[in-house]
Design brief:
295 residues; mainly beta; 2 helices; 4% helix; 36% strand
Length: 295
Amino acid sequence: LFGKVTLPVIRVPSLARTVLFANPHARCCGCEHDHCPSGSVTMSLRKSVGFLAACLCMSGSVLASEPADGGSVVGKVILDGTAPTLTPLVKSGDANVKDKEVCGAADVPDESLVVGDKGGVANVFVYLRRAPKGYKAPEVKDQLVLDQKGCVFLPHAAVIRVGQTILVKSSDAVQHNLHTFPQRNDPSNLLIKASEDKGVALKYTKPESDPIEVKCDIHAWMSSYHLILDHPFMAVTDKDGNFKIEGLPAGTHELRVWHERAGLLEKEYKVDVKAGAEKAIELKYAVAKFPAKKK
């Protein structure tokens, strides 16, 4: 009667990033099609509009990882004052350094305080210590790759979800190890062979209150930091000090701000997030807040 009808996707107003069906390959109730596409529902009506309505069923388990009334926090961490000049941890051509052919091939920079041209501070963690009440985090499926190149951990600072698979690789033609120093998780000490390209698997099973240090015992200057949480509301600043946390439920949240030199810069920085909006903040700290690390 009506021929072929194409309807737009139906979105559930209380959820963001929703999909029409939790399992797009499941058979619709009352419908003979093997699946209902998530982008549009197309079907032939055989008897009446009622048949079409019957096919537009929902499984009852819609993905609810981010509220539709959620918002974002965007910001920048700025150094107030003149950034110190840091000498390399290893200088190019150092004949006394271990594995000098690789580790002494170029300067190994001191990344304990990285400041951009306009004063933005890199490698600052900004995060919620705990997920908002009632929030159910989606399962994380993306793998994170950590590399070791030029006897430097890449990246220097990483945000990681509980249960997320981490593949530890090495672009260096020398042996490394990855030694974690957690507060709640069991410590790991992984031997990474030279030119490891497949990756040695690492997983954290518990959230940490603050970032943890990761070191290479073979090359003592090598260090990096991991923040492990059981929700996605965390970020690390880029080379210019910028960060963004998306999908936050509307309301007031308390951010923690942490840097490897300073420790906790903010324990309960309050931000008000509005539905569908971005909250812009600027965090400025005196250079005295970032003292040199004790050796």
